[in-house]
Amino acid sequence: MILVPAVDVHRGRVVRLVHGDPARETSYGEDPAEAARRFAGAGARLVHLVDLDAALGTGDNAAALAAAAAACREAGAEVQVGGGLRTLADVERVLRSGAGRAVLGTAAAADPAMVTEAVVRFGDRVVVALDVRRGRVLTHGWTRDAGRVDDLLPALDAAGAPRFLVTAIGADGTLTGPDLALYERTGRATARPVLASGGVRSVEDLRALAAAGVEGAVVGKALHEGRLPLAEALAALAGVAEGDSR
Predict the structure, then answer these.
(1) Pairing assessment for the beta strands 78-82 and 46-51 based on DSSP bridges
(2) Beta strands in the chain (DSSP E)
(3) Single pTM value for the model
(4) What is the set of active-site residues?
(5) Are 4 and 216 in contact (CB under 8 A)?
(6) Alpha-carbon torsion (225, 127, 36, 38), positive or negative
(7) pLDDT in tens, the chain (246 residues)
(8) CATH number of the domain to which 109 belongs
(9) If you compute the radius of gyration of the chain from its CA atoms, what whole number of angstroms results?
């Protein structure tokens, strides 16, 4: 399993939200490129960048995210970019700007056929995001209900989604631990790789997610606040991988 540090960008600054609520924002006062470079330089292989303004429809941070992607590449890491990607042109734009992967959320939930077309054009560089609260998928910056995850996930799987990024909204930004039941449920519904997001606070949480079978864990607040040192987390996951190989 891999660890994927998250860099969420709002109005040009690195922030974390609680339950995706802009009114419950913690700013870390850091340039996104510097945050991404720090994580990549410390050994992260993949960094997750989110444009919160684009997701909420209040603007964009395209230049900041492109700079962060460049900083990661210089340090030997890839990035995946999400937030407000509504069209195939948006996907192409972020991939051309240096992202290794583009994350489709709202657009994918609204039109699974778009996922099929995106995969035809961009292959496994597409990630489909499902942001889940109490069994429902929320879109448009977690402000609209798109339906039951039990209905949407199979439809998107059939559309050819190469991998899923599943966020437990109720755990996001809370440091209360991941929603393991959600990832076990997801694992029963698809054979595609799944990235888990929301609530990770400790090495024990990472080990629990590894046991649940996810491909990786997206971690934000615990890393930004130093509650989960990146070096410690990477070492623990390396130990999990070695244990799996024996």
Answers:
(1) parallel
(2) 2-10, 13-18, 21-27, 46-51, 78-82, 101-104, 126-133, 136-139, 144-148, 164-168, 194-197, 216-219
(3) 0.94
(4) 8, 131
(5) yes
(6) positive
(7) 999 999 999 999 999 988 888 888 999 978 999 999 999 999 999 999 999 999 989 999 999 999 999 999 999 999 999 999 999 999 999 999 999 999 999 999 999 999 999 999 999 999 999 999 999 999 998 899 999 999 999 999 999 999 999 999 999 999 999 999 999 999 999 999 999 999 999 999 999 999 999 999 999 999 999 999 999 999 988 877 655 543
(8) 3.20.20.70
(9) 16
Torsion-angle region of residue 218: left (phi > 0), alpha (psi -120 to 50) or beta?
beta
Domain that holds residue 96: 2-245
Element (H, E) at 119: helix 112-122
Could you tell me which residues are beta bridge partners of residue 131? Answer: 167
Tokens 């006062």 belong to 29
Q: CA distances (Å), 84 to each of 89, 117, 176, in order?
A: 12, 18, 27
What's the number of domains the chain is made of? 1
CA distance 238 to 235: 5
Contact criterion met (CB below 8 Å) for 30 and 186: no
Residue 187's alpha-carbon distances to 153, 154, 213, in angstroms, are 11, 11, 7
